[in-house]
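Fig. S4 source data, part A: sequence.
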Amino acid sequence: MSSNFIIEEGKLLAYTGHLQDLVVPNDVTSIAEKAFFNNITLRSIILPEGFSSIEEGAFRGCENLKNILIPNTITNIDYEAFEECNNLEYNVYDNAYYLGNNDNPYLVLIKAKDRDITSCEIYPNTRLIHHHAFSRCENLTKIDIPKTVISIGSLAFIQCSSLSSVTIPDEVSKIGNAIFYHCNALREYVFDNAYYVGNEENPYRLLVKAKDYDIITCEIHKDTKYILEDAFRFCENLTELTIPEGLKCIKKYAFIHCTNLEKIILPKSLVELSGLAFYRCISHKKIFYKGTSKDFLNSGLFLSSKLFDKVYYYCETKPSIEGKYWHYDNTYNILEWL
């Protein structure tokens, strides 16, 4: 019965009933964290069209859950959403297990069939790749992600130590944390002092890591959109870095232990910046942001208070209000307004 659903602003917070086969109301667009936690009665569930998000651990411990229908409108399934759902029945395509609906049974790639796979053809109409999907598939050497995929979950390819070739299309708009952690063979595309992954049209979409710890400079490719976790980890000789306009995201620990990084230029295009991106950059002195202070506040970017105090904002003419500002001189050198 509908009275057994606790719903707030479209989010299903909990279910207090005891039905085995459940149809979620049409006004629900997301399921909250642990909403069905340890519900051992639930056997099947149908999510409505227009539904978009399943939060962390939403169905964790639903040990008798066998079937779930997920609509094509899904955009997000968080970490451990189906953890300990040991009787969940998957759809199989090539070397992976999927969940979906009657029209597209392969909507969400949940996990590889086993860790010994050497290849996997992802279904051409898959939309999401779940967290840990290919975790520790150490014999996997290549993966081509189709253009229908919009999201790759955190740790999706963690410890795929033989993975040397990945195609990530521009259509992927959400990239989780540490998707290529310990993928040490991933060196397909090189530009200056860094390794990248991408696609045929843009091979440099994701900056994966620096070529080695000893680099003193790195020109980031102009078409790069993401700098991934640990990309410049322990690059202690790196003193300054210009991040090109067009880049969207800098993940956590991207510059961890870059202890001599004194100056970095951030683009106005940046929309996601982890608060831990510059963790333990003890010598970090100045951040030159290519937008105004208003642009920075409107972007939603997060910096610790310690780093926030080091931000200089771009201003072509000498500002009339107090603050930290900078501009370029005629030879494109950075000058601070005093």
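Fig. S4 source data, part B ends here. The longest strand covers residues 11-15.
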